[in-house]
Amino acid sequence: MKTFFDHTWRVIVGTIALYIIWIVSMTLSESIIPSGLKTPDAPEALSAAMLFIVCFLHVLVLYIFARNSRWHGIRLSLTVFFLVFIIQFFLSIIEAIWFNNSLNLPVSGQKFLLLSGFLMSIVFSPLFIWISGKMKSKGEKEIPGIDWFELLSMESGIKITILIVIVYPMLYNLAGYFIAWQFESVRLFYTESRDIEPFGTMLIENIRSGLYFFQIPRGLIWVLLALPVYYSIQGSYVRKGIIIGLVFATLMNAQHLLPNPYFPSEVSFAHFIETYLSNFIWGFSIAWLLNWQPKRRIK
């Protein structure tokens, strides 16, 4: 029971800290780069409540990672910084740029989101690690970092190539078609048409337009983000995969719960389901494939 309350108060304090830091970062960034963003068509109390819920979900999954990680201090703080800033802001913004004909997100708004995300991440990350009780080691021996020697082997190179060239782009397209694209509101939002074509037709079009190939560098970024989580957690690939999946899915998608002036509510809901499921599967797939060893013939 004592352990439960210890974890609980750390998560609650972390949530309050993230909530305050996020608001201050947005306020400061707005004074530096006026965003020009639309105002959500929702009561302020609802927006504030949903932001607090999003902060709680983010802190919860990061806390699960931090407490399971064998790292601590600056190394763990930097890991959390990159996870938060790149997943929550950078990867989201570059995808929004691709679909900006539908979103109409102003360039000033893109810069504002990146700046506020950077400020939030760099202030929150070390504070969160301190709140989590992972700022100092507790007498353990120095924990090894990422095994770059293993990763630079031909076998690992093939695995990573498969992940970023085939697994991620195909998972992206499959989830987009069989989940999000099944919502009529999503088809209307992006194409102004209710028609739904076969998956093969959509896949060919995504290859022709470059969307498939656009996902390859994004897949590489995802894999690079997964590595510190994978190598810092001790245990089975299942444990690692679940934690990576939760971090990927939540940091990228919890903000779909916020009132969004650029997405109709049904479109946000469709994307939340689509990307939460696909990002969780993607994170788990990385852990599984990095752990997988092909059977070798015994001569």
Describe the protein's topology.
Elements: H1 2-32, H2 44-68, H3 73-98, H4 100-103, H5 107-131, H6 148-151, H7 154-178, H8 184-191, H9 199-209, H10 211-232, H11 237-253, H12 265-291
Structure description:
- The chain has 299 residues and is mainly alpha-helical.
- The chain has 12 helices and no strands.
- It has helices at residues 2-32, 44-68, 73-98, 100-103, 107-131, 148-151, 154-178, 184-191, 199-209, 211-232, 237-253, 265-291.
- Helix 1 (2-32) crosses helix 2 (44-68), helix 1 (2-32) runs antiparallel to helix 5 and helix 10 crosses helix 11 (237-253).
User: Total strand count, please?
Assistant: 0
Major pleated sheet: none
Question: What helical percentage do the residues reach?
Answer: over 70%
Order of helices and strands: HHHHHHHHHHHH
Give the percentage of residues in beta strands.
Answer: under 5%
Q: State the separation between the terminal residues, measured CA to CA.
A: 55 Å
- Radius of gyration computed on alpha carbons: 20 Å
Total helical elements: 12
